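pasting for ref
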Amino acid sequence: MIILLTVCTGNICRSPYAERLLQAGLDSLHPGQFNVTSAGTMAMLGHEMDRRSSERLIAAGGDPTGHQPRVLHNVMNVPYDIVFAMAEEHRADAVKESPRMLKRAYSIMMFAELFDMLAADPASELVRGGDPASVSKRWKGIGVLASRVRSRIPLEDVTNFDVPDPYKLEDDAYDRMEAALKPAIYRILATEELVSTQDPGGH
């Protein structure tokens, strides 16, 4: 099982949207191979998913049913293969909670860029193929590979990959959130679909 975590602040707007949309897409590509969960650095325990995020998630094909916010600190004992942070501050918090995540935690928009870079480079060590063994090996090793190409992104551009927080703002803030987040998720899914069609023994 490949275990992924999405992280934001309250765990009611951005990270559950990413969690459920990623899960739906990955289930379509590789049924039963991925488990995506979410958490918040200051999770709003006892709340449901934010209504406006939930509405946008449903429209995109995800299901918000049963979401319950979780505190990041309480779930970092799990050996996640990748942590998808909604912003650089959340990535830093995940690494602080679990230093082993240093090469496994990325802002989700940056990861979409790095995954593309790896897939487009025939010399990269990215594992290709759609069989269960290849998919598992790809995602178990993708964090280290992504860390090798991360240096191509200027340090001053890091916060340009943050998904804006819409909480308690107007509807257009939720539109901006989705306009940043949904394309990143679709890009990850599209790249995964592409490399899944490629020969595991070649490129």
